[in-house]
Amino acid sequence: MAPDWLHTGIAMADRRRAAGSSPVPRPPQRQTSGADFLVQAGVRTMMREAVLKLVETRPEDPVAFLADYFGRLGPGPAGGAAAADLCPQLPGQLRLGRALWYLKLAHHSQRTAFNNNLTVAYDCLSAGGKKKKPGLNGKLYTDLLTKICHEGDLPKEISSALLKKIQCRDHEAVPFDVFRYGVVTCFVMMEFRSKADTLFNILDEDSQSDQRVCQTVLDTLKEALVASDLSVPASYLEAGSKLGPDCLAVAMDRALLGKKTGVPMSRNEFLKEACSLFLDKVKPMH
Amino acid sequence: MNPERLLQSAPEYLAQRHVLTYMEDALTQLLEHKDDLEPTDVARFFADYFTSVSQGTHVLFRDYSFVQCTPHNRASFLRLFWRCFRTVAKNGDLLTMKEYHCLLQMLCPDFPMDLTQKAARIVLMDDAMDCHMSFSDFLYAFQIQFYYSEFLESAAAVYQELLTGKSLNTVIVPTSRSATPRHRQPFNDSASLEGVEAPQFYQCLENVCERLRHSACPPLPLLGEIVSSAPRLTFYGFLMALAKHTGINQNIGALPDKADLLVDEILDSELEKLVAQISACSITQPPAPCPLPPREIIRVASPKKTLPSRRRPDLESDGSAEETDSSENS
């Protein structure tokens, strides 16, 4: 009478029962000692890597993280090969999935963890198949970026505009720096868009997003972003102060006082405008 | 995002979330089953194990020592207990403490009697321990007794101390020690007051929570709310309030609110589907025995193994019995 939720439990419990009481005469070659079995299966390495990854990533729910982690590890060969070393055996699509999984393990603001995962993902992608020489080519790199944007629910037009700027030619070799820049840009872009979405929610609180107010907010954002020269560190502070509540509130207040247009701005329009501000700042590859 | 966990040291993070407990158990389980596993299955095995932990089904049929060893395990066990036996509540059956204990032991064979007893005492107020209780009364009382058992033990000790007035006179001369309670008791009685003063008790509970930082304690704001509802309270009054408090129940997060205890539409619809399926199958064709005949033929066809084949049928039937079990379950 048990539905899905009991399955795993029963499976585990059955295994336990079977191991405890079953009179099955086991084949002699399988009766290895516990220590031998652990060595053979490379459990020590597997466990160590799992704990390291866990401590590095610090997920909110470590148990779910481990379930996913071991699930992704797949039927690895015995001998405790490191997770990254498993990649060469995988065909292209699987390698792409594996690399993407690594990239999503930690948020990009968790610098150390994210950088480590970047390296692993890069190695994984550039390990090469049977025929190919090692190294990451532009095609696989573009595929990866497309997949990141797709899974981040980035609209087609924005993601293609972004990709146009950061992709490489299919046959080109992609060095790590370029790979890193591209991947990080995608992730930051997605976060920027979700922040802009939150911003619109606030402007649209009673479903009355006045176009003028929205435009004012966008203009302030634009002023802060576009005018700043990113190579000068102080410009970050400047941009921050321009977006501070005083500046932004004054601008919004002025817009509210003025004559209302009565024309609402749609969410898509707002997000598109905001994203194009971001896209302007993305340095093109070519 | 909770930045606190990013600031913790690695051992702190692992200890707070009991990660090592589960890794150790995963290893123990792995070694127990090593003879049924290829070395290449290990990752799959761990994935299954942690999925089962995540879903809370990992405590099914486990020893009591494991069932109670983390708050997550305790919550999982409570949830299992509820989901397995909620039909009891649905039928409106009233059971005795011993019967509830048998139900508990079906999920955890060595579940200790004294915990069940303590839970029953919350419901029955110490008298007439062989009375019948409703499932929901028992369940919520059992929940706080099981989930907060360390906390409640300390709280009971603190309560006794307050009652006998020990902590009021922190410095007690040995000779006056026996005199103090005798002196206090009549004082309390004469004022016809039961229990202890709420603010004092709350202060003591705060200390208890501080002391038991590593065990599960009810959140202090909720404790304050419960304790401050009356100027004085008895320990059973406190336990009952704890058991009935919806905030506490939500904080544990294992059981639904009392009103929703019997509502489980998904399970109900699935059960109905299964019942329909089973009744349909039993008329037309038996579902499980289908894969059996080919195996039997193979077994007969191997004449070399005369001796093992004598033993095999019973263990094969053992296996097939389990199969029908699980197919009924699915």
Automatic annotation (TrEMBL), chain A:
One of its GO terms (molecular function) is microtubule binding. Residues 15-34 are annotated as: Disordered. It comes from the Eukaryota. Residues 93-283 form the Tubulin polyglutamylase complex subunit 1-like C-terminal domain. This is Tubulin polyglutamylase complex subunit 1-like C-terminal domain-containing protein.
TrEMBL record, chain B:
Residues 316-330 have a biased composition (Acidic residues). Keywords: Cytoplasm, Cytoskeleton, Microtubule, Phosphoprotein. Residues 301-330 are annotated as: Disordered. The keyword Ion transport does not apply. InterPro entries: CSTPP1. Signal peptide: none annotated. Its main location: cytoplasm. It comes from the Eukaryota. One of its GO terms (cellular component) is microtubule. It is found in: Cytoplasm, Cytoskeleton, Microtubule organizing center, Centrosome, Centriolar satellite. Regulator of the tubulin polyglutamylase complex (TPGC) that controls cytoskeletal organization, nuclear shape, and cilium disassembly by balancing microtubule and actin assembly. Regulates the assembly and stability of the TPGC and thereby modulates polyglutamylation of the microtubule, which antagonizes MAP4 binding. Belongs to the CSTPP1 family. This is Centriolar satellite-associated tubulin polyglutamylase complex regulator 1.
